[in-house]
Amino acid sequence: MKDFRDPKVFWYAPGKYWVMVVALPNDHKIRFYKSPNLKAWDLLSEFGPAGATGGQWECPDLFPLPVEGKAGEKKWMLSVNINPGGLQGGSADQYFVGEFDGTHFTNANAPNVTLWADYGADFYASTSFSDIPAKDGRRIWIGWLSNWIYANDEPTSPWRGLQSFPRVLSLRDTPDGLRLVQKPVAEIEKLRQRPLELRNVTIEEANRKLADFHGQSYEIELNGTADVQVLKDPDHETVVSTNGTIHIDRTDSGNVAFHKGFAAVHRSVPARDARLRIFVDRSVIDVFGNNGATVMTERVFPPESATGLQLSGPPSNRISLTIWKMASAWK
Fold it and tell me: Does the pLDDT value for residue 298 go beyond 90?
């Protein structure tokens, strides 16, 4: 078989054997194997096709996750990346929730239901860390921040591409069933510097306070309805909005001409509340909404002059926000 790839291996304690999850990309299937010694492998079962099948299936991962608010309850999540055929075009990360009995993965949703891990254009090839100490208890993953539509054309040198910061995963019971929740690892808060806090102010008042703000790496917590213009100069801006849906507009974000598929406005599912946690880091915008249930990740390529921050919307709208500039993670 020409395409048989991206194995992910973990120890399945109830059966006392290793399990390998591997993709059959063109068949839109995931195979499960077991081994007592990591040398001899026996086929257990197959899963698929299901969900999105508009491109090759890649980079599978399988792990249990806790269900929020239900002590001791866990369900299994199967992550399957796909390219092309993603929500915003090109590559994307879909997932399935269900049960794994050591042999078969059983999908809790109908085969035609597609669940997306990220509603932006630039979160792909996710993988989780195995064997985090039991006393920690977190399931943490990272993803590759790009999209195969334009990955080979990104205007960066001498390197191209980067990884996301780590996210902690859980499941939340919703009217539609169990859905993935992602939150930044708590360790990222160690990078926060002294905050700028604005409470119950109009957008007009907030902009007066932000007139002297300049930065390329910062975190925003926003409560209220507004368009947040980040990495802004007189000619460029990336806009994060909560107008019905959470959406990111990068049509004027900087260098958008390197590929015809880059400049776009991308939207999520409807936003159930107006609270956002936004991370800006030079060429990456991460937006966490609906308390982690809606996540959007986008690349942008602004000029060095784009360091401003501004809000827009009805001038009388009242909002609250806290902004932290973020120190470098590199020592």
Answer: yes
Tokens 């780590």, residue located: 166
Q: What is the DSSP letter of 271?
A: P
Q: Degrees (nearest 5) of the Cα angle 300, 259, 26?
A: 100
Angle value at C-alpha 275, between 52 and 205, nearest 5 degrees: 135
pTM above 0.90, yes or no: yes
| 85: DSSP letter | -
C-alpha torsion sign, points 105, 106, 108, 111: positive
Whole-angstrom CA distances from 268 to 87, 272, 290 are 10, 11, 11
**CA torsion angle 293 138 65 102 (round to 10):** 150
pLDDT tens, position by position, 180-209:
999 999 999 999 999 999 999 999 999 999
Q: Are 59 and 23 in contact (CB under 8 A)?
A: yes
Which candidate, 140, 98, 105, 91, places its Cα nearest to that of 22? 105
Residue 149, CA atoms < 13 Å, CB-side half-sphere: 21
Mean pLDDT of all residues in 264-274: 84
Span between the terminal Cα atoms of the chain, in Å: 45
